[in-house]
TrEMBL record:
One of its GO terms (molecular function) is hydrolase activity, acting on ester bonds. Keywords: Hydrolase, Signal. Residues 36-183 form the SGNH hydrolase-type esterase domain. This is Lysophospholipase. It holds the Pfam family Lipase_GDSL_2.
Length: 266
């Protein structure tokens, strides 16, 4: 064997080793989650922080959801700029998943926030998807968490039209869908109004009137949630729905199942 062939083989082996090392290094990078949505996902009134607490490396889960925001106002206020800035710095992560959930404040009767169900809401959601993809991350669309308003023993799902739009956008854009609306409706209907009331921010007052059926709650922008209602969740509700979203994302993207803490008893 000539000196030249030995040198070439050594160089090839070194190159292969370097490539293997780079691949192994990439595998050690964390996965990042960014949460974008309204108060049902936000800190203190939604499930977002409880979801992040389920991630093994909780510091790589960023909850940017904000109360009172719609698919339109979240962008109009410049909040989406922060998300895009984070996505431009993705080299330190193996993958970034952006969970996007709107619908509650896109409903009619909310000046400055409501969006048209046919002409604006689908365009807004599709634009979020396209921009996340363009920055090398994975958009994950989430249908809106149900309200817990019952009428004659049946849960009123007035968010279904918005959930349907999100399902269509996810299908058209071929991106993962977490059908939180369908799953939360089924779960809350099964538990009934009394148990569902225990998921709220605060205990239900004895004199609270019954929910107004299909009427959408007009939520003040960014107002702190400290009283009982049928939309927002306290610690129990946050933990319950965070686990639901965790199960949904594991089913939709099996490769990230190991990014979450083991369930109790496992």
């Amino acid at each position: 064997m000539t000196y030249r062939s030995i040198t070439c083989r050594a160089a090839a082996a070194a190159f292969a080793l370097a490539g293997m090392t780079a691949a192994q290094a990439a595998d050690t990078k964390p996965v990042r989650f960014i949460l974008v949505g309204d108060s049902t996902m936000a800190t203190a009134s939604g499930y977002g922080d409880a979801f992040c607490a389920r991630v093994i490396r909780a510091d790589t889960c960023i909850n940017l959801a904000k109360g009172g925001r719609s698919s339109g106002s979240f962008r109009a206020e410049g909040r989406w700029n922060e998300v895009q800035g984070l996505l431009k710095g993705s080299a330190a992560y193996r993958a970034t998943y952006v969970l996007i959930q709107f619908g509650h404040n896109d409903q009619p009767g909310k000046p400055g926030r409501s969006t048209d169900l046919k002409t604006e809401f689908p365009v807004n959601m599709a634009r979020y998807v396209d921009e996340v993809k363009a920055l090398g991350a994975t958009p994950v669309l989430v249908t809106p968490l149900t309200r817990r308003s019952f009428k004659d023993g049946k849960l009123e799902n007035n968010l279904q039209p918005w959930a349907n739009v999100i399902r269509t956008v996810a299908q058209d854009k071929k991106v993962p869908l977490l059908d939180l609306n369908a799953d939360s409706v089924a779960a809350v209907q099964a538990m009934g109004p009394d148990e569902a009331d225990t998921l709220a921010v605060a205990p239900k007052p004895a004199a609270l009137p019954a929910p107004a059926g299909s009427a959408a709650t007009v939520e003040p922008q960014g107002a702190a949630k400290s009283a009982f209602d049928y939309t927002h969740v306290g610690a129990k509700g946050a933990a319950y729905f965070a686990r639901m979203v965790e199960r949904e994302i594991k089913a939709a993207i099996p490769a990230i199942a190991t990014e979450f803490r083991p369930e109790e008893g496992q």
